[in-house]
Amino acid sequence: MTDPTVPTDPTALPAGAGRLRQNEIYTQGIHGRRPRVPTDHAELERRARRVMSDRAWAYIAGGAGEGSTMAANRAALDRWAIVPRVLRDVSSRSTGIELFGQQLPAPVLFSPVGAGALAAHAADVHIGHAAAELGVPYIFSNQGSAPMETVAAEMDRVRSGAPRWFQLYWSTDDDLVDSLLARAEGMGANAVAVTLDTTMLGWRPQDLNLGSLPFARGEGIDQYTSDPRFTEIVAQRVRAAVGGEKPEISVGAIKTLFSIARNAPGSLMKNLTAPEPRVAVQTFLDIYSRPSLNWDDIAGLRDRTTLPIVLKGVLHPDDARRAVDVGVDGIIVSNHGGRQVDGAIGSIDALAAIAPAVDGRIKVLVDSGIHTGADVFKAIALGADAACIGRPHMYGLALAGADGARDVVANIIAELDLTLGLAGYTSIADVDRDALQRV
Ligand SMILES: Cc1cc2nc3c(=O)[nH]c(=O)nc-3n(C[C@H](O)[C@H](O)[C@H](O)COP(=O)(O)O)c2cc1C
Ligand SMILES: O=C(O)C(=O)c1ccccc1
């Protein structure tokens, strides 16, 4: 028997997404089935911990230093309380928004997450599948576990033209930057997010204590090994290292090695005596990021891509103003999920200062610690145009693959829809600071 309240089309998210989702879950419950992922963040985290390896948990759940930025993200959210309004006819409402010319079902995106292969093989393909089902943009990580073209193809298979962005780490090799940007345009990216807060990796005790860095083991470098410019650099370096003995090393041979490695998880680093894998990993570590990055580079980016440019990792109102002046299209207020600077400002506190400084001139997104629909509501009320979700969708992926990643974000959107209505609002555009009180 089909229940008319259960959406057969998973893309039918707006217009009462909250009640539809509740009904779906309760109907399944009558048949003795539990939801595939917990519907609250605390339980989601606990369950994910049980199925993840120690290394995966350290990398994905871990934060910088003593974890105080992660705590600050939550504390900042908790200092704002929603003050619901009543008797305002909220029977018909929508969580939909417009962003860079696209209509989206909700002010929610999937944050870029690198080295997802620690949680599931070719993680990015599954997350892309999940995002396409929801019609929610997926920001592909530059440190992803599958080539962007493969992820884009999977998304198009689910829903042609499903929204997708590319997140760029600015390499020391400018030709690699151009190559990545050209590929992003080619695979249909709707925007490029340049991450500014990770020019160097933060101090991460959970990983350090295990001696575990995924990239050093060849995990999370698939955007690089699938790149013609990166392949060329590695071939040059291998030739320089062993050229005398192996003059036959060619770009084609390296390309073949990389392609085999991408299809067989972990195989790149199996043969540690061969120079190619070591050179590939060392090359990645040497060139993925350029700490000398500065505002002039960002100003010049306009001439290098036609895509809307979004700066990720902005926390100071002056940097936000500078972003407006330099002519980018948006910023993501973020402390990288508390993974970079320990003791940094909570991203919601930063948002509260930045949104008035930007004053609607460019798009303002936010992430870091935003894990529920109520959190997204608070972010919107404090002036964000949308919020991005990082670890929660990775926990869903670890627990139940693409369906798990999808359900986690669908639950967040469902709760957002209910919070919207129960707080007395019918559209995202109406929600402003009046909805909140500082406590
Ligand atoms: C395991 C992991 C890997 C990440 N990798 C990247 C990355 O490759 N690029 C990037 O810009 N941000 C990366 N981030 C940061 C996220 O995009 C996002 O800012 C953060 O996860 C948001 O906080 P939340 O996890 O509390 O939602 C990563 C975060 C995690 C947890
Ligand atoms: O782990 C991260 O958060 C991340 O973004 C990253 C990026 C480059 C190298 C290592 C980690």
From TrEMBL:
Keywords: Flavoprotein, FMN, Monooxygenase, Oxidoreductase
InterPro entries: Aldolase_TIM, Alpha-hydoxy_acid_DH_FMN, FMN-dep_DH, FMN_HAD, FMN_hydac_DH_AS
GO molecular function: FMN binding; lactate 2-monooxygenase activity
Superkingdom field: Bacteria
Binding site for glyoxylate: 59, 167, 169, 204, 336, 339
EC number: 1.13.12.4
UniProt cofactor(s): FMN
Pfam family, one: FMN_dh
Protein residues bound to FMN: 112-114, 141, 195, 312, 334, 390-391
First-level EC class: oxidoreductase
UniProt KW Oxidoreductase keyword: yes
This protein's record includes keyword Calcium: no
UniProt domain FMN hydroxy acid dehydrogenase: residue ranges: 33-439
Active site: 336
PANTHER family: FMN-DEPENDENT ALPHA-HYDROXY ACID DEHYDROGENASE PB1A11.03, S -2-HYDROXY-ACID OXIDASE-RELATED
Family the entry assigns: Belongs to the FMN-dependent alpha-hydroxy acid dehydrogenase family.
Protein name (record): Lactate 2-monooxygenase
